[in-house]
Design brief:
single chain, about 240 residues, alpha/beta, TIM Barrel, binds the ligand O=c1ccn([C@@H]2O[C@H](COP(=O)(O)O)[C@@H](O)[C@H]2O)c(=O)[nH]1
Length: about 240
């Protein structure tokens, strides 16, 4: 994986998602299918996106008992996407089970999809961590621990804010992927995101991949918004 920008296709149906993809088709975009679109369209949307030569992150954030996650991952492996994920909060046995399921469901001779773990959602603040989730370590410590647990479980990386990437790389090494949503430029609406950085900062902080949704999909001109984000992320602007 080089330094991709993944576009979050957070749309209610395939019509809107495919229309956005058609505007970016010449760039063979890496796209993310999340719960909203997948729960509406199911595996058919994955097939349609593959026909358009998109790389795909299927972002369903599995979090359940180990056996359920293993069996679910076995099914997801059959979709042959590039990237899937779980919540690190499910623990080591659950993350190991996710990998077992992916191995079991992947065709012989084909590499399993990469699997990453959500550490703490980018919509979570330090205050929420203490007051609501009753986690009494700092955001940075919590995320470092979750990342180390994901690595010990054999996962390929984590989802985090770019703000935490330097400490994750320190603990888990440079090859452990840091995939970072919560990307905004200063003029963008932050919506429900809290731990946010610009594409330029994400690059400087060492993110491997950025995930951008509404700043592109909700822009008046998504094509220009994509190109600007991409150039800033790649350090060209
Ligand atoms: O911690 C997380 C994990 C996943 N996401 C997902 O990324 C996109 C971000 O969309 P924006 O519109 O750019 O805010 C969205 O699909 C989330 O489900 C995240 O934001 N934070």
């Amino acid at each position: 994986m080089n330094k991709p920008l993944i576009v979050a296709l957070d749309f209610p149906s395939s019509n809107e998602a495919l229309s956005l993809v058609s505007q970016l088709e010449i760039y063979h975009p890496f796209v993310k299918v999340g719960m909203e679109l997948y729960y509406k369209e199911g595996p058919a949307i994955i097939e349609e996106l593959k026909m358009k030569n998109c790389n795909i992150f299927l972002d369903l954030k599995l979090h359940d008992i180990p056996n359920t996650v293993k069996q679910a991952m076995k099914q997801l492996a059959r979709l042959e996407v590039d990237l899937v994920n779980v919540h690190a909060a499910g623990g080591k046995v659950m993350m190991e089970a996710a990998l077992e399921g992916l191995e079991a469901g992947s065709r012989v001779g084909r590499k399993r999809p990469k699997c990453i773990a959500v550490t703490q959602l980018t919509s979570t603040t330090e205050n929420m961590l203490t007051e609501e989730l009753l986690i009494h370590s700092s955001m940075e410590t919590t995320i470092k621990l979750y990342a180390a647990l994901a690595k010990e479980s054999g996962l390929d990386g984590v989802v985090c804010s770019a703000l935490e990437v330097p400490s994750i790389k320190e603990v888990c090494g440079n090859n452990f992927l840091a995939i970072t949503p919560g990307i905004r430029n200063s003029e963008d609406n932050n919506h429900d995101q809290h731990r946010i950085v610009s594409p330029v900062q994400a690059n400087r902080l060492g993110s491997d991949v950025i995930v951008v949704g509404r700043s592109i999909t909700g822009a008046k001109d998504p094509h220009s918004a994509y190109l600007r984000m991409k150039s800033e992320w790649e350090g060209l602007l």
